[in-house]
Amino acid sequence: MKIDTLRVGGARDSNESWLLHRQLEENLGNLRPSAAGNIINALICSALFISSVSPLVIGAVLVTLTMLLAWRARTARDFAEVTPDSPALDMVRRRVNLLALSLGALWGLSLCALFTIATTEQQMFLGILAAGMMNAGTVTFRTRARAARLYLLSIIPGLAVSFLMTNSMSGVAALGLLICYSAFLSSQISLAAQRFDMAARRERALEESNATVALLLNDFAEQGSDWLFELDRDGCIRNPEQRLAQACQRPIETVVGKSWIKLFDPSIERGQMAAHIMEGRAFRHLILSLTIGQVQHWWSISARPVEDGWRGVCTDITAQRHAEERVSYMAHYDGLTDLPNRFLFNESLYHSLNQKDGVAGLMCLDLDNFKVINDTLGHPVGDRLLKAAARRIQSCVGDTELVARLGGDEFAVLVPASRLDQIDTIAATIIEKLSVPFALGDHDVVIGTSIGIAVGPDHGSDTDLLMRNADLALYSAKALGRNRAIRFESGMDEAAQARRLIELDLRSALGKGEMRLHYQQLVDVVTGDISGHEALIRWEHPDRGIVMPNVFIPVAEDTGLIIQIGEWVIRQAIADLATWDERLTVSINLSPAQMRSSSLIGTIAHAIAANAVDPARICFEITETVLMQDSDANIETLHMLRRLGVNIALDDFGTGYSSLNYLRSFPFTKIKIDRCFIAEIDSREDCQAIVRSVVNLASSLGMKTTAEGVEREEQMTMLKAQGCDEVQGFLFSHAVAREELSDLRHAPDVEIIDRRMMEMADYEERLKSRSERPKIKAA
């Protein structure tokens, strides 16, 4: 069985394995001299003691020695197939140790046996032979210190016994010499092993260094971009290298005698090189361009005059030049949109402000709801949106304006003094263009934008101040409802700081339990019963008190916290619903960001299951804005909600551009008539006509109607006359905390409703007495 098939020992460091392999290689490499020495010494001993020792004993010793030497030869042959990383390396090491031990023991026992029968002259021979074999063994096994010591330790006992058996002072003296000699040889073993290891490591390091140098030289020869050239006194090429011809992509015979200067494109640098050659001046690293096969290349040229012309070296730096141009482009332009980046924009703004008049207009804008879209639809969709928005912004400006992407969804527009009177028009155009839905593959996205405007030097005479004031104006535009442009005004700094504080506090509001749900009653117009409540969020801040949604919801949408807050509202509202009378319902508003959230369906389903409520008691309200953003995906989400058994209401109906289209696309269960039509329903016939049309439309489609913002008895009477199903507003109740709602587990608040119903009846009687009833019908 071959020893390299054996798995011996554990893992060893590659350097240790290499050194062990080198040690064994050196030890087994001196096989012939070692074997010859052992055989010659054995034959001399045999001849000397042939008359005193039985031939059978001598034969047995010689056979044993021959077997050991043959085993060592077999080990050397097997070792030739072992690599430094072979698991059989440990087996070879153990064989060498065992061979050293066996050879030393054989010679030690043989010398001891012969010493007892030897004459004085023979004993002197044996002593010399013993010293020689000890030294020869340590030299043979010097690369393996352990094997050398095993050989030495196995031969010493036999000699020591032989010296003691003489029972003479000479024997004791010989024993002392043996001990001293053994100690000396032991120290030499350690020293020889250390020297070999050091020499082997140096040899390996030198081999690796030579290999590296050879590799580098070979790489340079094969891939180097340098070549030599020679010119005659007239500046024409002579003795061209093949690589020069290859670089020019011409046969070498067509390069001979060609004008060196005419190889290159006309440029200032070519004129400089011609002047150097004409005046006999050496030059270094002159960079020139040349066109080879309609492709522009760049060479770096160094040359010096010689006795009969010029000699120089060329380096093709085309790749380096392209890399430098790419790095320069990346340093000044945005890699996604190819617009100037913040660095280039700031440089341009700085130069504009430092001109003679120092007048420049600055617009800072970002994309409304971009963060939510990027988080819910994914970064690839967000990147496509940024590129599409960048193209639209560029289409809104002229050649004199500079559009830049500052980072994320932030853009800026620099308007020169000559176009400053158009800055408001440009801003309005950008808002209009960005309000149009973006078709991004399978998604239709509506974003809008907010713009802050600052004009230098009135709003800042340096880059940082003008940028800061434009940002403050941007914050104000977002706070005022977005999708608008605002010029900077003094005092905006305080407003922006207040908004930042709200953002910081909002991030921890849910964790601190500061969010609360308030509820506003929904009243059945026919029966006057409370049919349910709409959940409205409030933020009970420890210092600010009650913070209304119009203050913190825009901040939540900008920061992406609207998803987390919306999920809390869903869970809390459904949990509250579980404690109410089973006739009561709850209405919950869904934001555009929630509709795009992948966790929406799971959150609702889990809340319904956890509280064991009938899903038909839950109504989710959405606005047309939700449907306009990625309408196909949102319609699919609404169908999934309907499959859960919940109701869907279209909120603020009639305020958008395509309400009827959405009623056709999805079977809503309820339409909520916006308060703008209810506010003047008792005084304007157009409002009455609109409400009547919406009620009739909903009735024909099998949907209920709810009127928002009912504050006067006159409005209530008119809505009842028009056939509206449900109302809500301050006439019945403000939004109050759950604890302040009355009789949630039993009947509706009969006293309040009855009073309202009596007031309505009284109002109707007064209308009749004034003969106003026909007028209402006519409306």
Automatic annotation (TrEMBL):
<feature type="domain" description="GGDEF">
    <location>
        <begin position="358"/>
        <end position="490"/>
    </location>
</feature>
<dbReference type="Pfam" id="PF00990">
    <property type="entry name" value="GGDEF"/>
</dbReference>
<dbReference type="InterPro" id="IPR000160">
    <property type="entry name" value="GGDEF_dom"/>
</dbReference>
<dbReference type="InterPro" id="IPR052155">
    <property type="entry name" value="Biofilm_reg_signaling"/>
</dbReference>
<feature type="transmembrane region" description="Helical">
    <location>
        <begin position="124"/>
        <end position="141"/>
    </location>
</feature>
<dbReference type="InterPro" id="IPR043128">
    <property type="entry name" value="Rev_trsase/Diguanyl_cyclase"/>
</dbReference>
<keyword id="KW-0812">Transmembrane</keyword>
<feature type="transmembrane region" description="Helical">
    <location>
        <begin position="148"/>
        <end position="166"/>
    </location>
</feature>
<keyword id="KW-1133">Transmembrane helix</keyword>
<dbReference type="Pfam" id="PF00563">
    <property type="entry name" value="EAL"/>
</dbReference>
<feature type="domain" description="EAL">
    <location>
        <begin position="499"/>
        <end position="749"/>
    </location>
</feature>
<feature type="transmembrane region" description="Helical">
    <location>
        <begin position="39"/>
        <end position="71"/>
    </location>
</feature>
<feature type="transmembrane region" description="Helical">
    <location>
        <begin position="98"/>
        <end position="118"/>
    </location>
</feature>
<dbReference type="Pfam" id="PF08448">
    <property type="entry name" value="PAS_4"/>
</dbReference>
<keyword id="KW-0472">Membrane</keyword>
<protein>
    <submittedName>
        <fullName>EAL domain-containing protein</fullName>
    </submittedName>
</protein>
<dbReference type="InterPro" id="IPR001633">
    <property type="entry name" value="EAL_dom"/>
</dbReference>
<dbReference type="InterPro" id="IPR035965">
    <property type="entry name" value="PAS-like_dom_sf"/>
</dbReference>
<dbReference type="InterPro" id="IPR029787">
    <property type="entry name" value="Nucleotide_cyclase"/>
</dbReference>
<dbReference type="InterPro" id="IPR013656">
    <property type="entry name" value="PAS_4"/>
</dbReference>
<dbReference type="InterPro" id="IPR035919">
    <property type="entry name" value="EAL_sf"/>
</dbReference>
